[in-house]
Design a protein that fits this description.
- It is a single chain.
- It contains five helices and six strands; from the N terminus they run H-E-E-E-E-H-E-H-E-H-H.
- The chain starts with a helix and ends with a helix.
- It has a single domain, classed as YqgF/RNase H-like domain (Nucleotidyltransferase, domain 5, 2-Layer Sandwich), CATH 3.30.420.
- It is of the alpha/beta class and 143 residues long.
- The longest helix is centred in the C-terminal third of the chain and has 20 residues.
Length: 143
Amino acid sequence: MTTTTTAHQTLLGFDYGRKRIGVAVGQQLTRSATALTTVRAHDGKPDWSVISHLIEEWQPDALVVGIPYHMDGTEQDMTQAARRFCRQLEGRYRLPVYQADERLTSYIVESSLSGDSDAHQDIDPLAARLILQDWLQQKESQQ
């Protein structure tokens, strides 16, 4: 891909969880992301019909999934589950899927919402926004 092509890419970002998956949309041109929605998961299985609808609606060029690690960089229980979700996204949608380190993402979002009990309902898409925006900014600094 050329730099011109990637500059206009639309991406969907995911904060994977066994019960809820936050989703955000971002543009490589602006290196910014916007929180979209929360997709429910049942018994660890995502609601693929909702994810398919989001893929159709936004027509992303690539997907970014937050991969959780412990603070020391070691894997945790959710690390393999998030990687499995990446493989499922690749297999279903035939799009590039990038993994992003999501250490402290939920903590940062929760801290910014402290005292606003209504806002806690929206933590998953906000975490996805933070994951995607961080990934976009890191990509820019690598170019």
